[in-house]
Design brief:
It is a single chain. By secondary structure, this protein is of the alpha/beta class. The protein contains 30 helices and 36 strands. Strand 14 and strand 15 form a beta hairpin. Helix 13 packs across helix 17. It starts with a strand and ends with a helix.
């Protein structure tokens, strides 16, 4: 049993850390079953073997001065301020690099040590500006604190340091500055870039007094390999690396711990405030998903929350050609309720529906689906997971019995082989990508299955990964070929299969997969990947003690997305890589609460907890609490809503926090559907592309303005805590509740904790979840119930919710979307580090400095064939549409494959994606679109119309926004 020290009781508790995340213990924890007892300044303490003397002293409540040491970096031993005396040893060893030994007696405070530390500090200060009163780090500077702690009162060497005092500040990065004149060359920034982030963008150049921190090859930070994760800024003990928001606003005065609202990693942050102004977001060391690390989005891109474009008051209009009218909340809600009731009276109960948000909290999403089922009286509720991870739910529930990933993120640190399929973790899930890179540097093997060469393959000091660049649309052929090798070469885990799997299903699958038509040689012509590489990949994965699979939208967003998810589960079951750390099947969720929006019953056929609406016992439980009868028939999915709207049978839609006009495929069809609606109610923070077709605009609230919970990709339920008051006066859950009340179905909650209590009452996997437990534990991974009272970090350890694991036959069927002479290229899409999803948030921050437009990446041979150079305008045509993007020549794809992102609405990436979709879930096939590319000189017709429509809608909004600003100005007077 591993032990952790509890400073509050001076005892060790097995299995769980209770350290204060706000304290710095100097060096990282060491986990060991062997405990070592030492004495520090006469105080006895017992710590795990391998612990540093510096950390042991900190655990005992004894503070040893330090500058180069911090507990998220390995000991470095350069500053020597942490020197101590050890009985029986000569000299003054650095406590950060000295491990404890049984019976060791340590003294941290003597006259000689005090003099030594003052002498060291004199050297530091002799080459440091004496501008503490005007320094932006004044009051939050470790150098300043240590100078005081060691009693420095004079500097005998003067203040004319050799190199640094006249160094120029690098302000090229939009979020932080680098002032080398204040650098003490402690190397913490360099080590953070290497050990925490894994980018290796910083280095120390020169020696002695000539030592300086350098970004890449003496580049400005903005032009270097730096990815602006903020690890260097957080590590810096002076104001050398400093957030520009702190330089402008001064030091924050209080903080609130909350959860990031970007990707599915679910990082915890301390939102540091000055009054009601957010000064900076600091990654929280106590966050179990991120352990004090961050990315450029979560760390710095929070300015959208107070952007001038925010919708701050409710607005209504009769037609999308009318100007917006600012009204009170009561008037807007009454207008909405009248419209919805009138439409149902004329067109029937099924004529309206709602779409929940994967950006909103669990509690808010729960209320929207409850509103649809209880107040609308139907099951026409869906969520953005329809267009991203709905195949994950279907595929994993079919094979493993639960619609979620099996592991914690930390589990990757025990993986011997990591297989990444259709995912780009360093761009889309960067904090987890950094953790994965750390494991690769420790020696884990990497297999990447992706049409595009992603950055995880370029991990510095991470070994050479195996890349299988398959043709888009051939995932199932690839996974079948891998499984064929495992079966025919005897690489299965027969003990696991016989004890944990349904043998009838296994035999059916094994007979199918062993057929020669599934061999790598037979599938080589289909996938385009040499059979030898496929066999190598299968052997690497199956031969690992712990093999982990991580996958993303490159798996699910296909016509066979559900089949591929089942194929991945088959691989894990066949090799026994389920039910323990270091293995598992791990979907990387795109948005911050995709997992939660699915858990909360957003799908038309499932109530919260993935309970089917046609189950009478399930409905009875909900009906008894909700006080209404629930329809037993599944409702419309999002694509069905669009089709029905165009057909005239679906007339009204309530959309909370989703931009379907930009994010869903076949944009022109979506636009036609939205134009057909008699009433579109959009609840959001900006006039997004969907809101331009709306009749009611209800102001939304950002994650900084609300209480609630998010559930990340590892099933971790994290608290979201209100940092500032909602700009529009109401949190999103309050708006939904008010709309329900206006419709005549009463909802009465005073706090999101009460909504969670109702969720726990009705959802078996959440019965043990409540806000008190979340405050006590920090976070909980569901299932959390009587069987798992503290949550479930690793699922399926003993059995599966369906009893035995079920292999599924995964027949490969080629997509209907194929190349031809007219459309000879295959387009696939993805994301980029600096932008997020449809870009509504990140485009309103300085993140656009890195990615101001979507580009079309194409292989040099395809470019040469068409006479294309970098920066040329390219027309991209598919069977459903045409758009224009600027060219970027790249060798990341194979010839015949082109790639783009979808973060900017005017790019029209989804104008050309078709409405082909997954056979089981209707998840769109974004990743496979046959296109032709040619040089052009002007935007497409759709783009010209987009610009015109956007101008008209902005003009219709402007009077209302101006009136709001005038009202605000008068109020200030």
């Amino acid at each position: 049993m591993l032990h952790y020290y509890d400073p509050s009781t001076e005892t060790f508790e097995p299995g769980k850390s209770v350290l204060n995340p706000d304290l710095d213990y100097g060096t990282p924890a060491r986990l060991s079953e062997t405990l070592v007892s030492i004495s520090v300044d006469g105080r006895d303490i017992t710590v795990p073997e391998g612990t540093s003397v510096l950390r042991a002293a900190a655990l005992a409540g004894i503070n040893i001065p330090k500058l180069c040491a911090t507990d998220n970096l390995e000991a470095f031993g350069s500053c020597r301020l942490c020197a101590v005396e050890i009985e029986g040893r000569r000299g003054y060893p650095a406590s950060c690099t000295t491990p404890v030994a049984e019976g060791m007696e340590v003294t941290t405070q003597t006259g000689k040590l005090a003099k030594l530390r003052r002498n060291i500090m004199e050297l530091y200060i002799s080459d440091h500006p004496l501008d503490c009163l005007t320094c932006p780090a004044n009051g939050d500077c470790e150098l300043q604190d240590v100078a005081g702690a060691v009693g420095l009162r004079e500097v005998r060497y003067g203040f004319d340091g050799k190199n640094h005092l006249d160094a120029e500040t690098d302000a090229s990065n939009p979020y932080f500055s680098f002032d080398p004149s204040k650098c003490i060359v402690c190397s913490r920034c360099v080590r953070a870039c290497e050990e925490v982030q894994g980018t290796f963008a910083l280095t120390i150049e020169g020696r002695g007094f000539d030592s300086v921190v350098s970004a890449s090859q003496h580049d400005p930070f903005m032009d270097s390999e730096c990815v602006s994760c903020g690890a260097c800024v957080q590590a810096c003990p002076t104001s050398t690396l400093m957030e520009k928001t702190v330089i402008d606003a001064g030091q924050p005065e209080h903080s609130v711990v909350t959860t990031c609202a970007y990707c599915g990693v679910g990082c915890s942050f301390k939102a540091e405030m000055k009054g009601d102004q957010l000064v900076r977001m600091v990654p929280y060391k106590g966050g179990e998903a991120n352990h004090g690390h961050s990315c450029v989005k979560g760390r710095f891109a929070f300015g959208y929350a107070t952007h001038k474009d925010r919708i701050k008051e409710p607005m209504i209009r009769e037609s999308i050609n009318d100007p917006w009218k600012v009204v009170s909340w009561d008037e807007a809600l009454a207008f909405s309720a009248k419209k919805l009731k009138g439409i149902q009276a004329e067109y029937g109960r099924e004529s309206i529906g709602g779409i929940t948000s994967s950006r909103c909290t669990n509690e808010e999403t729960y209320l929207v689906q409850k509103l649809v089922r209880a107040a609308f009286g139907n099951n026409n509720t869906d969520t953005c997971a329809r267009v991203c991870h709905s195949p994950t739910g279907y595929g994993l529930k079919t094979t493993l019995g639960e619609s979620a990933g099996t592991q914690t993120f930390d589990s990757v640190m025990k993986a011997d082989t990591i297989m990444v399929i259709g995912a780009n973790p360093t761009d889309a899930h960067p904090v987890f990508g950094s953790l994965m890179r750390r494991r690769l540097r420790q020696g884990a093997k990497l297999v990447v299955i992706d049409p595009r060469r992603t950055d995880i393959l370029n991990t510095p000091h991470g070994g050479e990964g195996l890349h299988l660049p398959l043709r888009p649309g051939t995932n199932v052929a690839m996974v079948n070929a891998l499984a064929h090798v495992i079966v025919t070469e005897g690489l299965e885990d027969t003990d696991f299969i016989s004890s944990r799997c349904d043998l009838k299903a296994y035999q059916a699958w094994r007979s199918f997969i062993a057929e020669e038509r599934n061999s790598p040689e037979a599938m080589e012509e289909v996938t385009g990947v040499p059979a030898a590489k496929v066999r190598e990949a299968a052997r690497i994965y199956a031969g690992a003690d712990n093999g982990a699979i991580y996958y993303g939208l490159g798996v699910t967003e296909h016509s066979q997305g559900s089949t591929m998810v089942m194929g991945i589960a088959n691989l894990a079951l066949a090799t026994g890589n389920i039910g323990r750390e270091g293995g598992g099947v791990n979907p990387l969720r795109g948005q911050n609460n995709v997992q939660g929006s699915c858990d909360m019953g957003s799908f038309p056929h499932e109530l919260p907890g993935y309970q089917h609406v046609n189950d009478p016992a399930v409905r009875a439980r909900f009906e008894s609490v909700w006080g209404v009868e629930i329809d037993h028939e599944p409702g419309l999915r999002i694509p069905n809503m669009f089709d029905a709207a165009v057909a005239g049978t679906f007339r009204a839609l309530y959309v909370q926090g989703e931009d379907i006009a930009q994010s869903d495929p076949n944009t022109q069809h979506v636009e036609a559907a939205l134009k057909s609606l008699d009433c579109l109610i959009v609840q959001d923070i900006f006039l997004n592309e969907t809101a331009k077709y709306a009749h009611v605009l209800l102001p939304g609230s950002t994650f900084l303005e609300k209480n609630g919970t998010f559930t990340n990709a590892e099933r971790r339920i994290n608290r979201v805590r209100k940092v500032m008051e909602p700009i529009a006066g109401m949190e999103d859950w309050q708006v939904t509740m008010a709309l329900s009340n206006a419709l005549g179905y009463p909802m009465n909650y005073s706090h999101p904790s009460e909504i969670m209590d109702e969720i726990a009452q009705l959802t078996p996997t959440f019965t043990g979840v409540n806000y008190d437990k979340l405050e006590e534990q920090g976070s909980i991974q569901w299932p959390c119930n009587d069987e798992h009272p503290d949550g479930t970090p690793t699922m399926h350890t003993l059995d599966f919710p369906i009893g035995k694991g079920r292999f599924a036959v995964t027949e490969y069927l080629a997509t209907e979307e194929r190349t031809s002479r007219r459309f000879p290229l295959l387009l696939t899409t993805g994301r980029i580090l600096s932008q997020y999803n449809v870009g509504a948030q990140t485009r309103r921050t300085s993140n656009s400095d890195w990615h101001e437009e979507d580009l079309l990446e194409l292989h040099p041979s395809d470019a040469e064939l068409r006479g294309v150079k970098d920066g040329d305008w390219l027309g991209i045509s598919s069977r459903v549409g045409h758009t224009v993007l600027r060219a970027k020549i790249s060798t990341r794809m194979l010839p015949g494959v082109v790639y783009t992102t979808f973060h900017h609405p005017g790019s029209g990436a989804n104008v050309i994606t078709t409405d082909n979709s997954d056979w089981a879930t209707n998840c769109p096939e974004y990743k496979v679109t046959a296109v032709q590319v040619e040089k052009v000189t002007q935007p497409s017709d759709w783009q010209l119309n987009f610009v015109d429509f956007d101008k008209r809608q902005q003009a219709l909004l402007k009077p209302a926004m101006d009136k709001r600003e005038d009202h605000h100005a008068n109020a200030l007077k």
